[in-house]
Model the fold of this input.
Amino acid sequence: MPGVQEGASAPTDGSGSTSRRIGGLSRLEGVAASRRPGRFRRHLRRGAVAWLLMLPTLLALAAVSFYPIFNGIWLSLTNTSLITNASDFVGVVNYANLANDGEFWNAWFHTVLFTAVSTGLETVIGLGMALLLFETFTGRSLVRAAMLVPWAMPTVVTSKMFGWMFDGQHGVVNYILVQLGILSANVDWLGSVRTALGTIILADVWKTTPFMALLLLAGLQTISPTLVEAARIDGATGWTAFWYVRLPLLWPTLLIAGLFRALDAFRVFDLVYVLTGGGPADSTETLSTLSYKVLFSTLQFGYGSAMTMAMFATEGIIALGFCLFIIRQLRRQA
Amino acid sequence: MTAHRSVLRPILTYTGAFLILLWSAGPFIWQFSTSFQLDRALTAPTPSFIPHPFTWQHYANAFFHRQLWFYLRNSLIVASVTTLLCLALGSLAAFALSRLNIRGRFGLLMLILSVSMFPQIAIVGPLYLIASACNLLDTYTGLVIVYLALGLPLVTWVLFGYFETLPRELDEAGRVDGVSTLGLLYRIILPISLPSLVTTGLLAFIAAWNEFLFALAFTSNFRHQTVPVGIANFTDLYYVPWGDISAASAVVTVPLIILVLFFQRHIIQGLTLGGLKE
Done:
């Protein structure tokens, strides 16, 4: 089982062997310290060295991630604007305005919809791809290699590529669909309110599904084949063996991959910014793109920060919900 | 029934495999083909898959007319420096977490992981104000500092996962030989971790190479803008230059694809260890 669980079990192994190495005495640190000052000092020094080695990383994260978050909370309580040069404390006025801001809720709704639909599709299609790649067939490594292409490509390039394929006039998708008789006339995929968000979701699904599949494949490969075989011997067909043996064992991987995917989908920016800029008629506006406009076009850093903090809170709730669900599922299984 | 099944199964498998291949590689192959086609072929009523007549015109346009040279140079500098710093700092942190008896190790790992989950839009505003106050807007340094912090969680996690797989007898042997703590890292652990360092470095490089939001906010002209911002700005007044965009896309994506294909096995392993992070 990759990921968090491995991380969770590894440290216990690690510290176990470390304390063994130090001579099995670290459990009785106090006693050891009083009797053997040299050993204690060495222990202390190694702790100091460890923190010293961690320091650059922790400093970088503190300066570029934690401090800005706290600064953002402060800014969201002010009327900071780079146009009026104001920056006075105004309390929760920004949040009150946010609650009545139609554009904000419009973007909030699109973001949640985008996250739910794209994560769902990516997990289901990714699982299908993973199961297929689990079979042995000639050319499997070629397929697996090709699946890394969408992942490695810059998202801006993906966006432009979909913009060209789904172009309303000369796009190849229109051409194919019209030739096949599925469409009677060209559709302006990204220029029409009805299809724009769907096209962006499709671009996201294209870019991230293959990678999801590779992660799930890695999870599938950790499941002991003897279990599936045993089920087969007991008379389970391919489908029941999947449903009752493989899927439950894959469940933790699936949930964690889904969580990471959802958190990532929630902050979608590049695709929307490049493909539609939030249009047509705000039909693809998401929280990241709307916040970016408020921050960098209208330069209202106070109000923009309130918006990003509301987004941060929503993301936190998603993460918390997912984590509680994962823990409950894992408990039930254990 | 069984005979029927044994014929059907490979057919289904190969159909599925072909569909995945088409899905993954198809769009980019079309983009690649587009980059060699004349504008009038691209706007013809019937698109053709094979470029005919073949042209390098879009590549010339992208490089000389649209400053792709500058964007490539900027991206190369920013991504390389970020990668080196990420590896230098991340390996220290991963080593401390894996080999030194650090207190609250699990908490630290979780803290580092949770940082990578922060929505970047939530930190871009405050960071912009700081960068502006420190005169770091429109500089490589500003971008490198941000990318370093964005890349460190992944690098630390992946390297930590790798260090944990190295046998602890190595440490013992080193200690018997009288190697210091840092000597253990630089003379024993890092040399045998070279494959993992290369893969992790590649992941950090790709992340910095592809990053868009901060590059967009922190840079305002081609002297410091990176490739994604450059390509996003490829527009003309009356039409979208799809050919030039495709050419630039090919230039910035093909090297990545080659690198990724070369290291594919390590990448999948590294990322699976690294907590399923993209």
Observations:
- Confidence is low (pLDDT under 50) at residues 274-278 of chain B.
